Amino acid sequence: MRWSTSKAVVGSFEGCEVVRVLVGEEQRDFNLHRKLLCDSCAFFQTHIETIPSPSSSQDGDEDEDSVLWLPNEAPDMFEIFVLWLYQRRKFSSFIETATQRISPDECRTMRTNLVHLHLFAAVIDLPALQDAAMDALQDTYLRFDWDMSPRFLAFLYGDCDAQHAVRLRKWAIAMLAWTLHGADEKAAVMAGQLDRLFAAYPDLQADYHMHLHKMAQSRADVRIKNPQLRLPANKLRSGERLFGFRQCTFHSHRATVGEGTCPHALALGHALVAMPVRRRDNKDEIESDGSDADRLIISPVRDLNEISYLDLS
Ligand SMILES: [Zn+2]
Fold first, then answer.
1. Cα 117 to averaged position of ligand 1 atoms, centre (Å)
2. Ligand 1 centre and the CA of 234: distance in Å?
């Protein structure tokens, strides 16, 4: 993965310092609050610290300022990252609203972006973002009752770094087992491709058999234990866990929580600081995530309706 910085623009809008981020080979332009980005994780803090602030640059000459360029990331994925960055508390409801508003094909595109968002979060080591992306993925699969596809598995086991994809793989394997043990046509289609997938990706085969072993140990029935369904608590009665998975089963912090409360739920109980931000073309008003609910900000990202991206279905 390659990251670079180069000469470009850091500006200041309405008294808030903004950093310019270019994403992808096309260098799609995002103007984001410097503090918000730096506070999100060490990755951005480290990379943005090297960019001079307007106050330290000479005479506010924009042409002499700097930019962060993420050449290997997808701009459409990054738009969803920006939504999360600015509206964490409303992220899940925003995704849910989007799935109601956009077409199934567009939802598949959004799904693909969420997968890449999860991988991006792994790369920059931002567990809260990983887990928000995972929640959104599960909810979207549940809404449309999607199964796991051979193409998605081939992507996770053939194209992705094993460490970055470890949580996605865990969830995908659970989805594979659930799909295979269904009684419908999709199960037969997947079963017909299983030998080819196992031959191509031995790790997939090992993970699948390990999953079945764990399910058998816990006396779970893979025909009805649905990985689309994230149950709204970690401490469950025995009957509840038959039909879905604990809230944090596929979260990156899973091992440290046990049956306790999801740390992201606790963190989201605190209001984020709202900061006014204005996009250069002054489009797209979206309510901020701050405690001042009446204050509207101009979102630095476009609407999810406009996203277009590689489909993994
Ligand atoms: Zn959790």
1. 17
2. 8
Question: Could you list the pLDDT tens digit for every one of the 313 residues in the chain?
Answer: 333 333 333 444 445 688 899 999 999 999 999 889 999 999 999 988 877 665 554 544 443 356 899 999 999 999 999 999 998 888 988 898 988 888 888 899 999 999 999 999 999 999 999 999 999 999 999 999 999 999 999 999 999 999 999 999 999 999 999 999 887 888 888 888 999 999 999 999 999 999 999 999 988 888 888 999 988 766 666 666 778 888 889 998 866 656 677 887 766 553 333 333 333 333 333 333 443 332 333 334 444 444 333 334 3
Alpha helix segments (H runs only) across the chain: 34-40, 42-49, 75-86, 91-101, 104-123, 127-144, 150-158, 166-180, 185-200, 202-217, 254-257, 263-267
Whole-number Å distance, alpha carbon 248 to ligand 1 midpoint, is: 4
Ligand 1 centroid to Cα of residue 253, in Å, is 6
CA–CA separation, 184 and 165 (whole Å):
28
Q: How far is the CA of 231 from the centre of ligand 1 (A)?
A: 11
264 Cα to the center of ligand 1, angstroms: 6
Distance from residue 171's CA to the centre of ligand 1 (Å): 14
Do residues 222 and 177 touch, judged by C-beta distance below 8 A? yes
Tracing tokens 């405690």 back to the chain, one arrives at 291
Alpha-carbon distance 305 to 106, whole Å? 8
Cα(257) to centroid(ligand 1), Å: 8
Residues 192 and 186: their CA atoms lie apart, in Å, by 10
Rounded distance from Cα 88 to ligand 1 centre (Å) = 14
Q: How far apart are CA 64 and CA 99, in angstroms?
A: 42
